[in-house]
Structure formats: C-alpha cells, structure tokens
Design a protein that fits this description.
single chain, 155 residues, mainly alpha, two-stranded antiparallel ribbon, 3 helices
Length: 155
C-alpha cells in the first residue's frame, strides 16, 4: 500500500505532465493535495480540463471521468489533452464580434506570447474600418485625383 507522500509525489509528476500541455492554452493544472490518490487526482484534473475546454457535443465530453478505471485513464489522458488544445484554439467557440485572449506560457510559467482568436478580424471592430478599399497602382504612381506623378520617374 502506498503512503500519502508517495501519492503526492506521483501526483506532482502528473501535474507537470498536464502543465506541459496546458501551457499552450494559458492554464495550469490544479495543485494536488495530500491525501488524494494518484488516480483520483488524474480523474478530477481530466474532468476539469474536459469541462473547461471541450464543447458539450464533443465525443469525449460524454465520458464520465470520475467512473473511469485506472487502466482507462492512460488511454484517455492523451486524447483529452490533445482535444483540449485543439478546442481551446478553435475560433468557432468564440461569440461573433468577440475576441478571446490565450496566453501561452514557457516552461517556467512566464507568459511567452499572447494570442487573440475570434471569428472575425479585429480590424473590423475599428471605428474607421472601410471594407472594399483597393490598390490603385503599384507600377504607375498616380496622385489622389488620378493624374500620373512624373517626379517619381518609375521605369
């Protein structure tokens, strides 16, 4: 039988494993507590990840994480983590007209990059946005009235 300290040290190894994946979506795995078994920590963490990132129509969302056997955890863990990264970066899950901030962390827990995702470009939210602007000319420069500019001497 394992001691609570051995369970805690094993939980800390799984926390590091989860953190390596979750840093891509701006989240850290929850801190394990003394007295929690390794498999209980894994089940609760996977349940939290599932409920945070996966949409309700995702096939893995239907899995009851708290009822999983120990051998099934090893199979479902990589699938849930991979699906969480994919769904967290999916702009379809952001409300139209909104942007979501995703902070990506380095291995030391410091913010490395900040990405913004959304269904539309942030440029459309600017007050002076005018769609349909076109390039008038590259080779033959013209001024604002359409007259050729002679002083530029483009061959």
């Amino acid at each position: 039988m394992s001691t609570p300290e051995e369970h805690l040290s094993a939980c800390l190894k799984f926390q590091e494993y989860y953190d390596n994946t979750l840093r891509k979506v701006g989240m850290r795995a929850p801190q394990p507590t003394l007295g929690t078994t390794v498999n209980d920590y894994r089940r609760e963490t996977l349940r939290t990840i599932k409920r945070t990132f996966l949409p309700q129509n995702h096939p893995l969302y239907q899995v009851q994480m708290r009822e999983l056997k120990a051998d099934a955890l090893g199979v479902l863990e990589p699938q849930v983590l991979e699906a969480a990264v994919v769904e967290a970066n999916n702009p379809c899950h952001v409300e139209p007209g909104q942007l979501r901030k995703i902070e990506r962390f380095d291995q030391y827990g410091q913010v490395k990059t900040i990405d913004w995702i959304g269904q539309e470009s942030f440029v459309k939210q600017m007050p002076n946005y005018r769609s349909g602007r076109r390039v008038q000319s590259f080779r033959n420069p013209v001024d604002h009235s359409g007259n050729a500019v002679r002083w530029l001497n483009v061959p």
